[in-house]
């Protein structure tokens, strides 16, 4: 093989590599709340933020979490079901709701009581310290867990519909219920719909 042919092949490979690397999108840091954030057919962080914000605003406006005795409500998180085609962690929604309610100054959330046991397992471990000979019992604080008076439950639903040959409509419904544990009655219910219209070739899972 001549030196000229070898040089041509090297240049061709270098050019192809340069074009390939030049077309690779650069990684970007997105600012929360920015208007130019990419929109996906699946659920994104901004979707959870919107659903949580709508739910909390509706609760506060309805007066469901108001009390006249000066005390704060104590909420326990029950079950938030994922009825979508995606593997999502519903805690992403619940956490945002809890943070906003805590900031409102009207609601506290218990992490010691739940359907699957304590969220913070240290509460149970702390209760067992009194049985340990390694612990100075004079330093122990008597544990009295606060019982919740309201429960948050819900479901996230997904519905996909073909609009025409080229587009699909993906609808998500964030359905939440706040229950008074004293009588089992729903004191607040809300639903936030998020609808996305995009290419029929796009995936939402």
TrEMBL record:
Domain of life: Bacteria
Pfam families the UniProt entry points to: LpoB (PF13036)
PROSITE patterns in the cross-refs: PROKAR_LIPOPROTEIN
Protein name, UniProt field: Penicillin-binding protein activator LpoB
Gene: lpoB
